[in-house]
Specification:
6-stranded mixed beta sheet; alpha/beta; 4-stranded mixed beta sheet; globular
């Protein structure tokens, strides 16, 4: 599920995620939550997302925007921050979880470096390290790649083709139309989109974004009012052959 933005995004997730899971017979759900508090998230936001039906929450460049999340990152295995942050920081970037029929599902959270944070280590090398280590114990491997550049996201998908079952991008809040399965069986989507205010600019009030581009005085971004949407993607995985067999976008509006 794409980046949850503000209270509207949280409320829409709570209203619609469980019914979507039941309708589509979904067995495991990963939600990006790093914008639940506008920038960053707090522990109670994470608990709300887990109660709404998320199995794992991933983060990105706003991981540290709310420092109260730091202790929670260490205590809750269900929330991941990018694995290519410095190793001494709170939390973890990879987790292995119990799936249906005894499957072990590995989820890897990575962040791109282009226009985000050049002080990160290489997400490609981080993927190599984890997939050759704890990832070997998993039956299914999923990669959430939080990145700005579509080229970096696409390169990651191709780089991991045949080594993981699904790679998807987050961060840009706009869903892409390139659902595909790579030659070695990895499902891919450049960006999931977002879960939050529908009539907005990336979830915020349009006038705030317009003000920025017209050179106005800086102002605090606020989530736009009104109806919300949920952008997501459904990956269908053949766990016997360990390949993705279908990728579908899901867009649910109020």
């Amino acid at each position: 599920v794409g980046d949850v933005v503000g209270e509207q995004g949280l409320e829409h997730l709570e209203r619609r995620l469980r019914s979507l899971k039941q309708l589509k017979d979904i067995h495991f759900t990963v939600v990006n939550g790093e914008n639940a508090a506008g920038l960053g998230l707090l522990p109670h936001h994470a608990e709300e997302m887990l109660d709404a039906g998320a199995d794992v929450i991933t983060l990105g460049n706003h991981t540290w925007s709310k420092r109260k999340i730091c202790d929670y990152l260490d205590s809750s295995p269900a929330i991941l921050r990018p694995a290519n942050y410095a190793p001494g920081l709170p939390g973890r970037g990879f987790g292995a979880y119990d799936g249906p029929e005894g499957l072990r599902i590995g989820v890897l959270n990575l962040m791109g470096r282009f226009q985000l944070d050049s002080n990160l280590s290489s997400p490609f090398r981080a993927a190599d390290r984890i997939l050759s280590g704890p990832g070997q114990e998993c039956d299914v491997l999923l990669v959430a790649f939080h990145a700005e550049a579509t080229s970096e996201k696409g390169a990651m998908g191709w780089y991991l083709d045949g080594r993981v079952q699904a790679v998807w991008g987050t961060h840009t809040h706009v869903p892409t139309a390139d659902t595909q399965i790579f030659p070695q069986g990895t499902g891919f989507l450049t960006d999931l989109g977002m879960t939050g205010p529908d009539r907005s600019v990336l979830g915020i009030r349009p006038e705030h974004s317009i003000n920025r581009f017209l050179g106005g005085l800086p102002t605090r971004y606020e989530a736009a009012p009104g109806a919300a949407k949920l952008n997501a993607a459904l990956f269908t995985i053949d766990t016997q052959r360990r390949v993705c067999v279908d990728v579908q976008r899901c867009d649910i509006r109020e």
